[in-house]
Amino acid sequence: MKRRPSSTAVKAVLIEDSQPDLDDVRIELEAAGQLAVVGIIYKGLFETIRQVTAAKPDVILVDFRLVKGKHPQNVEPTQGSTLAALFKEKARMPDTPVFLVSEGSLSQKDPLLHIKAEPRFFDDLLIKGEIQKDPRAAVERIRAVVAGYGRLSSVSKRTRKTLMDLLGAGEAELDSLMKSEPPAALATGDAWDVTEVAQWIRHTLMGYPGVLYDDLTAACFLGLSLDSFRSKNIAGFFEEASYTGPFCEEEARWWKARLLAKATSYLTDAGEAGPPMAFGQTWRRKRRLRITLSRCNSSGEEPADCVCCLLREAVRREYSLPYVPDGRPAVMDEARVSFKAIRQPHRDFDPGLVAADARPLVRGIQKQTK
Fold first, then answer.
1. CA distance 318 to 152
2. Quick one: which of 175, 246, 278, 320 could link to 148 by a disulfide (CB 3.0–4.6 Å)?
3. Which of 275, 280, 262 is nearest to 225 (CA)?
């Protein structure tokens, strides 16, 4: 389960180019509770920076397109990402998270594409329609990011050791962390930057399974259904594998190496050898508890040991193909796409992203009976 940030209200500034838009978003966010919003109408770069700096917010929310009512010859920035980048400069508010607020996603397939391409510009994206639909979820996300930034900013001596301590990483995790394309300062010995580390944690460590696992990936890794993995007995057994570092409030994660160690130890004590996905079957047999195993979405077989990256459903490795949808570090688990997603096909399925040596299989899978 996600850990909830402190109940203390978070102070946000919201920068919009029209009063009606500002009022709508502010009312929706404040109605959810635990977020106090100071509204600022964008009337120019330096005046906006002055007002935001004076407000001393915990988080900055800025409209993605600051163009309404602007004269064509106006030389002021018209995109919120430009303004966000200025706030991230060391001379201003580098340790303050910045969200862009947009009418729609910046990309149909990946709304965070611009964050990955320009990682220092801003931290995350809020869609106005999604705020309106579930303002409480939007506020919880904002507060979780603020809490994570707060933990990073509280560290006075920003060395690799202090960051590893903050992450809760041990010797078993250090090697994989250093292979996961961390900020350069962790290798050079320079003081690390809060924004760089925050975005590495959120968009790499928590974004791709391999060092940390989300709950569905962890469940499949152990051969368990998601409900069984979340059950009291099993959650308690793997509690020490839980990630408790910055941004754990945003979404729960587990250290892969610790899940593996716990599962292997349990299997060994039970007198059985096998991959970690055998854990669920062994636990059910030894403890005689009513748990369910992960079921493959393409064959119906149990247990399934991985996750289809498009459908976010359990799948057995032999009923999936390697997929290359992103530029994740090599230390991360490879993405896999299930036969089910290929047969449908899923709206985002791209045959060109299937690993080259597996592409000849795609046409045959698509011909299979659904």
1. 41
2. 246
3. 280
pLDDT of 8: 78
- Residue 280's pLDDT is 95
Q: What is the DSSP letter of 254?
A: E
Instruction: For 174, list phi and psi in degrees, rounded to 5.
Output: -60, -45
Other beta carbons within 10 angstroms of residue 87's beta carbon come to 23
Neighbours of 188 (CB within 10 A): 10
Q: Please provide the DSSP assignment of 21-69 as one string.
A: HHHHHHHHHHHTSSEEEEEEE---HHHHHHHHHHH--SEEEEESB--TT
**How many angstroms separate the CA atoms of 277 and 218, rounded?**
10
The arithmetic mean of pLDDT across residues 94-109, rounded, is 77
Residue among 180, 213, 232 nearest 305 (CA): 213
- pLDDT at 74 (0 to 100): 56
Q: Which residue has the tokens 């639909």?
A: 133
**Alpha carbon distance 280, 157 (integer Å):** 43
Calculate the CA dihedral of residues 132, 34, 154, 195 and round it to 10 degrees.
10
| 80-87 vs 45-55: helix crossing angle, rounded to 10 | 50
Quote the Cα angle for 32-36-39, to 5°.
Answer: 110
The per-residue pLDDT for range 17-49, each reduced to its tens digit, is: 889 999 999 999 999 999 999 999 998 888 898
- pLDDT tens digits, 63-81: 988 865 454 455 566 677 7
- Other Cβ atoms within 10 Å of 146 Cβ, number: 21
Give yes or no for a contact between 357 and 323, defined as CB atoms under 8 angstroms apart.
no
Alpha-carbon separation of residue 176 from 52, 199, 256 (angstroms):
39, 17, 10
Find tokens 């190496």 and name the residue: 257
Q: Which amino acid is at 293?
A: L
Q: What percent of the chain has pLDDT over 90?
A: 72
Q: Which structure tokens are listed for 325?
A: 């949808």
Cβ distance 58 to 96 under 8 Å? yes
